[in-house]
Amino acid sequence: MSVTTPEAELQIKRSHIQGAAEIPTILRIHRLSVSFHASERRASGPVVRAVDEVCLEVKEGRIVALVGESGSGKSTLARAVPGLLDPRRHTAEGEIWLNGTDLRRLSAKELRRYRGSGVAMIFQDPANALNPVLTIGRQLIETIRRHRKVQGTEAKKLALDQLRRAGLPNPETLLRKFPFQLSGGMCQRVMIAIALVSGAKLLIADEPTTALDVTVQAQILHELDRLRRETGMGILLITHDLGVVAEIADEVYVMKGGRIVESGHVFEIFARPRHAYTRELLECR
Predict the structure, then answer these.
(1) Partners of 260 in the beta sheet?
(2) What's the DSSP call for residue 24?
(3) What is the DSSP letter of 179?
(4) C-alpha span between 186 and 179 (Å, rounded)
(5) What is d(CA 30, CA 95) in angstroms, rounded to the nearest whole number?
(6) Long-range Cβ contact pairs of 272-281 (< 8 A, separation 24 or more)
(7) 109-116 contacts: CB < 8 A, separation 24 or more?
(8) Which residues, other chains included, contact 23 with Cβ-Cβ below 8 Å and sequence gap of 6+?
(9) pLDDT tens digits, residue range 242-265?
(10) Entry pTM
């Protein structure tokens, strides 16, 4: 019986990395910095730089993990991409390119149109991300009408199809339910279904499994992995859980104090961490 040594396995992974070089890039962030102001009057009060000249790429059909401890700037970066930060309290510099479009140059109105059709986002607490006073069907069908320009029976049929694609059983019954009637895992699947409706090429998942039990976490990760393979969407996965990273990520960026301190293929990072902070994260796991 032949045994693959760690060095041989690493060489196989390096070949895999080289083969991925020709895959189209969906998201390219270049020297992005985000500063927060203590007051809406930017001339007064202290300034905190949460993201500091970050460069990052997500390729088609790849899952890129952004890891680091709480407060490292991961979620700020994630929200900066679709323009979800309060413009009265933050200043951003740098470039955010999505499918050849510089999002930093879009007006607020243009950016709102681009959300969903270009980039979709799911959050750590899906129950709070959904509207508690509207049924699942109402929220999903409204999203379909906004992005697909279809009405009536066709919109409902698409809603049912998207719920099935997200792995949800009994979609007919689910359409009539409110978010509080669903489990956390089901709400997260509904958020995935809403993200799929628009046909977005980039999905940003901000700690999507943190509030879920271990079994449901595995199911959600499986769905994300399946969807990127079937649709070719790129996924930017924000997490502090290196077990999640090892499970489905292709590339890893390690963030500390608003900066990227190390990046590379997941097998390179786990087998040969170069930065002391990366080694500390692995030792904590």
Answers:
(1) 255
(2) P
(3) G
(4) 9
(5) 5
(6) 272/10, 278/254, 281/67, 281/68, 281/69, 281/242, 281/254
(7) 111/82, 111/83, 114/82, 115/82, 115/83, 116/143, 116/146, 116/147, 116/197, 116/198, 116/200
(8) 59, 60, 61, 62
(9) 888 988 999 999 999 999 999 999
(10) 0.85
